[in-house]
Amino acid sequence: MNPFEMVKNLKNLEGTMNQMKEELAQISETGSSGGNIVQVTLNGKFEITAIKLDPIAVDPRDVQMLQDLIVAAHHAAMEKVQEKIQEKSGSLLGGMNIPGLKL
After folding, report:
1. Does the pTM of the predicted model rise above 0.85?
2. How many CB atoms lie within 10 A of CB 87?
């Protein structure tokens, strides 16, 4: 393997990864639970950017249900973000399989 070719490929990969980071920063997906009673929005870094609660979900006698709904909505949003990342990374990386890169 030619070392100069490896360096060239690394620079191309670095540029691709930087482009991918920029695109992932733009991702915003919302997951919901309980028939949209709870909605959680995540960005491409899996950070919560918003939580929307229907007032019907706020029952002081059933805090456990609200907690479960928030967890379920967060999980749904995470799945959507992961799908979006896979879509974007697949097109950017041209179908390359990079060991250790699991999304």
Report:
1. no
2. 12
Identify residue 53 by its one-letter amino acid code.
Answer: L
Q: Is 39 exposed, middle or buried (0-12, 13-18, 19+ CB in 10 A)?
A: buried
Helix/strand/coil for 32: strand
Select from 25, 20, 11, 18 the least CA-distant residue to 91: 20
Q: Going by C-beta distance under 8 Å and a sequence separation of 6 or more, which residues neighbour residue 63?
A: none
Terminal alpha carbon distance of the chain: 29
User: What per-residue confidence (pLDDT) applies to 96?
Assistant: 53
CA 61 – CA 74 distance, rounded (Å)? 22
* Tens of pLDDT, residues 69-79: 999 999 999 99
